[in-house]
Specification:
The chain has 613 residues and is α/β, with parallel strands linked by helices. The protein contains 19 helices and 27 strands. The protein has three domains: 3-249, Aminohydrolase, N-terminal nucleophile (Ntn) domain (Glutamine Phosphoribosylpyrophosphate, subunit 1, domain 1); 252-451, Glucose-6-phosphate isomerase like protein, domain 1 (Rossmann fold); 455-600, 3-Layer(aba) Sandwich (Rossmann fold), CATH 3.40.50.10490. An eight-stranded antiparallel beta sheet has the order 3-2-4-1-10-9-11-15. Helix 15 (456-465) packs across helix 19 (577-595). It is globular and about 85 Å long. The model has no long low-confidence stretch (mean pLDDT 93). It binds 5-amino-5-deoxy-1-O-phosphono-D-mannitol (M6R). The site of 5-amino-5-deoxy-1-O-phosphono-D-mannitol has 16 residues, from helix 9 and helix 16.
């Protein structure tokens, strides 16, 4: 998704902007540009824009690494096309009339067509097909010398989501920023001040950041930062210290972020679990809910997108078994519009790595509007979902850069286990002994993940054989079905191989007709009660020509009677098996994509954080 960086300080801005944009490359983009304000040789203020289609290196070449665009104050952008094709003219920044204003934008202006028609009648002409250009012209229309007033008036006319970085030509050295439902931060340092759509962009320069609250406007000069509400009143905001390192957002010797993050899973799971276990018992104090309130929950409604949705599917099995609370799971994009029938004491849980996914945020707002308590399971501190949820349970995965999520997924699983155990105890479904047995095993998961990683060559070898497959199927039952969904998504998003996951019992109802000679079917089987059933399903596909890969726990050696190849993971409590089987599935996807020579960290058409609907 698009990236924004802005800098005003005591050094040339363009090199800083290019540097920051590079750190945001992982979000996906198709073009890039910078706007820098300066004083020309006649003493007049100017804003110069340079843009290029394609990779940032094109923009670097055009600007001699930023040196040919003079000025100490500027904004930059990487664009991921939504309105209008990827092209120079559609890329950001966009000028308003007479180059008075330059704008970069993340998000979508929903009523841009109406605004465009109105402004056209008023004499504005549009160069691009973007929604962003309407904002530039609207600002021009309302600008009479007071930027905060112009921005605030613009905000009353646009619908949708936006994070904006704005330069006014007659305000050299000043950057203005505003956000609604799209993330934007400001950072301060001795060398100057910054805006950015994500922390890694400015981490090299500062750790002192403020996550701009929704609907607030910010004015930055090289020395000062001021915040305003939509009524143009100045407000105070607090800054916080980012406590992770730039290295955490860099590859550190790994070929790809995805592989690095797969290897970071033991640490991430440990960091998420251990602070929440005290004397062998789960401590949910941070939720701000009493034991009584937890016990009173009559139903749980979980909502999320993509992999986070698969975590919810796992949670359904786990929470229902451990706490005997009914759990409904919805895709956030469905939940937000379906006016679900919900009981009074329902707890809504929104799961999101980024905390900015548009549909998940909208689902959260819908639930809150209807008076339900919302708990966010979120990775990015200070993100929109974290701020708007009634309680937050952070996953401590650290920054996740790869578009294909791995370590955030694993920490989300760990978070739902903790919640399930805490709830089970609060509701008297499990006793202290069972709780202690479960938490002890939870603490052992990181070391078991490490053991799987030590055997990665077996998976790599296998993946190479199947990197040219046309279709790959995943089957499982119960918890293993949820893991199959994740294995299949991981594979298709980075390898572009068509893949589907099925609850194995469903095969006979249609899908089995797709099985042909040599097709790879991955059977996940970790649940004792369902093991034989899954084996039967594997026999069914094998007898129709499928090549069968079995993924199971050590001890289940009868898997080898049917599977052509078997991958074992360490034994654990069955309710935690998803945390282990997902690791070989991630490695399988990674090595299949690598075998095809694909850019694993930048899968086509995908973005790390989907902040538009
Ligand atoms: O940031 P979120 O967890 O809300 O993101 C949800 C999905 O967009 C995300 O999990 C996506 O499916 C990943 N690319 C999967 O690897």
């Amino acid at each position: 998704m698009c990236g924004i960086v802005g800098f005003t300080g005591r050094q040339q801005a363009a090199p800083v902007l290019l540097d920051g944009l590079e750190k945001l490359e992982y979000r996906g983009y198709d073009s890039a540009g910078v706007a820098v304000s300066d004083i020309d040789k006649n003493g007049e203020p100017v804003v110069e824009i340079v843009k290029a289609k394609g990779r940032l290196k094109v923009l670097r070449e055009m600007t001699d690494d930023g040196r040919s665009v003079p000025g100490t104050c500027g904004i930059g952008h990487t664009r991921w096309a939504t309105h209008g094709e990827p092209s120079v003219v559609n890329s950001h920044p966009h000028y308003a009339k007479d180059k008075r204003i330059a704008v970069v934008h993340n998000g979508i202006i929903e009523n841009y067509q109406q605004i465009r028609e109105r402004l056209t009648k008023e004499g504005y002409s549009f160069l691009s097909a973007t929604d962003t250009e309407t904002v530039a012209h609207l600002l021009d229309k309302y600008y009479t010398g007071n930027p905060i007033e112009a921005i605030s008036r613009m905000m009353f006319h646009v619908r949708g989501s936006y994070a904006l970085g704005i330069l006014f030509r007659d305000r050299p050295g000043e950057i203005y920023a505003v956000r609604k439902d799209s993330p934007l931060i400001v950072g301060r340092s001795d060398q100057g001040n910054f805006i950015a759509s994500d922390v890694p962009a400015i981490l090299k320069y500062t750790r002192d950041v403020c996550f701009i609250p929704n609907l607030e406007i910010v004015k930055l000069t090289d020395q000062e930062i001021h915040f305003y509400n939509v009524d143009q009143e100045e407000v105070e905001e607090t800054f916080s210290e980012i406590n992770w390192d730039t290295e955490a957002a860099e590859k550190g010797g790994f070929a790809h972020f995805m592989l690095k993050e797969i290897y970071e899973q033991p640490k991430a799971v440990r960091d998420t679990v251990s602070p929440r276990i005290k004397d062998g018992c789960v401590d949910l104090e941070e939720l701000g809910m009493t034991g009584e309130e937890l016990a009173k929950i009559s139903r749980i409604q979980m909502v999320a997108c993509g992999s986070a949705y698969h975590v919810c599917m796992t949670a359904k099995y786990m929470v229902e078994q451990t706490a005997r609370v009914p759990v409904d799971v919805d895709l956030a994009s469905e939940f937000r519009y379906r006016n679900a029938v919900m009981e009074k004491d329902t707890l809504v849980i929104v799961v999101s790595q980024s905390g900015e996914t548009a549909d998940s945020l909208a689902a959260l707002r819908e639930a809150k509007k209807r008076g339900f308590r919302v708990l966010g399971i979120v990775n990015v501190v200070g993100s929109s979902i974290a701020r708007e949820a009634d309680s937050v349970f952070y996953t401590w995965a650290g920054p996740e850069i790869s578009v294909a999520t791995t370590k955030a997924y694993s920490t989300q699983l760990a978070a739902v286990y903790l919640l399930a155990i805490g709830l089970g105890r609060a509701r008297g479904v499990i006793g202290e002994e069972a709780e202690k047995e479960m938490t002890a095993e939870l603490m052992r998961l990181p070391e078991k993940i490490e053991r799987i990683l030590e055997e990665k060559e077996r998976i790599q070898w296998f993946a190479n054989k199947f990197s040219h497959s046309k279709d790959i199927f995943f089957i499982g039952r119960g918890l293993d079905y949820a893991s199959s969904l994740e294995g299949s998504l991981k594979l298709k998003e980075i390898s572009y191989i068509h893949s589907e996951a099925y609850a194995a019992g469903e095969l006979k109802h249609g899908t089995i007709s797709l099985i042909e000679d040599g097709i790879l079917v991955v059977g996940v089987a970790t649940q004792k009660e369902l093991f034989e059933k899954l084996i039967s399903n594997m026999v069914e596909v094998k007898s129709r020509g499928a090549y069968v890969l079995g993924v199971t726990s050590y001890g289940n050696y009868s898997m080898e009677d049917v599977a052509n190849y078997t991958i074992y993971v360490p034994k654990t409590l069955e309710c935690f098996a998803a945390s282990l089987v997902v690791v070989p599935l991630q490695l399988l996807a990674y090595y299949v994509a690598l075998g095809k020579g694909l850019d694993v960290d930048k899968p086509r058409n995908l973005a790390k954080s989907v902040t538009v609907e």
